[in-house]
Design brief:
mainly alpha; single chain; about 120 residues
């Protein structure tokens, strides 16, 4: 957060992540639990609509959107307290799997420590 008006600086983060869905039913069940949680900002009609969308999407993309929170992305930035999230847009879409380029990148991340990144609710 900036102390002086007019000196704000913004950075837009772009993250691309391909995940393998190993259990579509469990993924959907987790999303439905989030949709039906009392803290979800949904009325009864919205809950029903979202639950139907999650259940009808056999790719798991709609379910996964319910399980990722924008604050989780901040966990990727270690040891920095001088940023404040202002806007978050999340898109999840089906993929044909990792590209050859993605597989090559895995070698670059061997030994990269992600300890301390607990993304569970």
């Amino acid at each position: 957060m900036s102390d002086v008006s007019g000196t704000e600086r913004y950075l837009r983060l772009t993250v691309e992540l391909t995940v393998e869905v190993q259990d579509i039913a469990a993924l959907q069940a987790s999303a439905l639990k989030e949709i039906n949680h009392p803290d979800a900002d949904l009325d009864d009609d919205e809950r029903k609509e979202q639950a139907e969308l999650v259940s009808a999407d056999d790719t798991g993309a709609t379910a996964l959107q319910w399980l990722i929170e924008p604050d989780h992305v901040l966990g990727l930035i270690e040891h920095v307290d001088q940023i404040e999230p202002r806007e978050a847009v999340l898109g999840v879409e089906p993929s044909d799997g990792p590209s050859d380029e993605d597989e090559d990148d895995d070698d670059d991340h061997v030994g990269h420590d992600h300890a301390g990144h607990d993304h569970k609710h």
